[in-house]
Design goal:
Distance between the termini: 62 Å
CATH architecture of the largest domain: 3-Layer(aba) Sandwich
Order of helices and strands: HHHEEHEHHEEEHEHEHEEEH
CATH superfamily of the largest domain: Periplasmic binding protein-like II
GO molecular function: DNA-binding transcription factor activity; sequence-specific DNA binding
CATH class of the largest domain: Alpha Beta
Radius of gyration: 23 Å
Family: Belongs to the LysR transcriptional regulatory family.
Number of helices: 10
Protein name: Transcriptional regulator, LysR family
Helix content: 25-40%
Strand content: 15-25%
Pfam families: HTH_1, LysR_substrate
Keywords: DNA-binding, Transcription, Transcription regulation
Number of domains: 3
Shape: elongated
Length: 298
């Protein structure tokens, strides 16, 4: 059959949104039209591309096979666009970054703002969600991760190390017994993750601190550090977040410290796209500098 790029574009939108309505919003066309386009494509191919259920549209085996080829076509089209636009000018178009909310709240906004200032035609989106992202489904163009993935056709680059410490607001410390050693934590209100919602083992901070019970729990780093800021209790916080909250101070800094790393993860095929390469290089450089700057303030 004579398959057109526009057909593949509609297919990719449905595969990534897992719904006709979501694809319609991305493509800016009516969901019913999206449905007709997919039905026609399935008829032309002689195979169902999606398994449809109340939960949405999931790729069938045939859909999975087409996805691989469709992504390659998409990358080729983007590559042609880059060549036609030229490489000497500023970055343009939309780039979406997936990131854990610690990085997304306290590091990436100022990093991406600096990059955007130098590239006025660039549109940057930060998706801040406490979960893993699928680059294959193009939920994001690149992902900042706290663990390097071990499977998939991915390109992984270490960005930088960062540090975490136990911390509390001075108002909480004034109202409670002094904390001079780790055993003194018992009896204090602790702030941390909801245990069964920890999506990466690198985030299980309280286990390493020897804390068995968390009194105030959230799957969001931003919520946790705001609890600490309000004097709600003691939490393990990113050093780079501390300068944003007056009155929050490290405790037991010589006794307990964690080192973690950020990694930039991209689909391996995207290494051929100069626009994403240039953005990734700027993101890594600026993130390293920003983490170092903020940690030096604590």
């Amino acid at each position: 059959m004579d398959m057109q790029w526009d057909d593949l574009r509609v297919f990719l939108a449905v595969a990534r949104a897992e719904s006709l309505s979501g694809a319609g919003r991305v493509l800016r066309i009516d969901p019913a039209t999206v449905g007709r386009r997919i039905a026609r494509l399935e008829t032309d191919l002689g195979a169902p591309l999606f398994a449809k259920s109340p939960m949405g549209y999931a790729l069938s085996d045939a859909g999975q096979r087409l996805m691989t080829h469709a992504v390659r076509v998409e990358q080729a089209v983007e590559g042609v666009s880059e060549e036609m636009a030229g490489r000497s000018g500023g970055l343009t178009g939309q780039i979406r970054i997936g990131a854990p909310d610690g990085a997304a709240n306290f590091v990436l906004p100022q990093v991406c703002a600096r990059i955007a200032r130098n590239n006025p035609d660039l549109e940057v989106q930060i998706v801040a969600l406490p979960r893993l992202f699928s680059l294959t489904r193009r939920e994001a163009d690149m992902v900042v991760a706290v663990s390097p993935p071990t499977a998939g056709r991915l390109s992984v680059q270490k960005i930088t190390d960062y540090h975490l410490h136990l911390a509390a607001h001075r108002s909480y410390l004034r109202q409670h017994p002094p904390i001079e050693r780790r055993e003194d934590l018992h009896g204090h209100r602790m702030v941390g993750y909801i245990q069964d919602m920890i999506f990466d083992k690198e985030l299980d901070y309280m286990r390493e601190a020897g804390v068995e019970r968390v009194n105030l729990a959230s799957n969001s780093v931003s919520v946790q550090v705001n609890w600490v800021r309000q004097g709600g209790g003691i939490g393990v916080v990113h050093d780079f977040s501390i300068p944003w909250f007056r009155g929050v101070r490290k405790i037991l800094a010589d006794d307990f410290s964690l080192t973690r790393s950020f990694y930039l993860v991209r689909h391996a095929d995207d290494r051929r796209l100069e626009r994403l390469n240039r953005f990734a290089a700027a993101l890594v450089e600026e993130t390293r500098a920003e983490v170092a700057r903020l940690e030096a303030l604590t």
